[in-house]
């Protein structure tokens, strides 16, 4: 039986809450660091549920079910962009500076 949770993505982290009313005083029940996410993809075939998607880290795969196909696509796009942004900043950081001798 899936438990209903509400998710907020902010500053490279995905926070989850038990209630849909999130205020500045709300305490997240958990947090997923987007920097640790390797991939996000649709998972409807994997778990046989509509609007499902999967976030993979090095140690685990987490499955989520959105309320609609559009919401699923929005999450996949948003988290996918955050993953790409993070990996790109890592590449920029590691790139040698060829102009200095």
Automatic annotation (TrEMBL):
SUPFAM superfamilies the UniProt entry points to: PH domain-like
Gene3D superfamilies xref list: Pleckstrin-homology domain (PH domain)/Phosphotyrosine-binding domain (PTB)
Domain called PH: residue spans: 1-84
One Pfam family of this chain: PH
Protein name: PH domain-containing protein
Organism, as annotated: Gonium pectorale
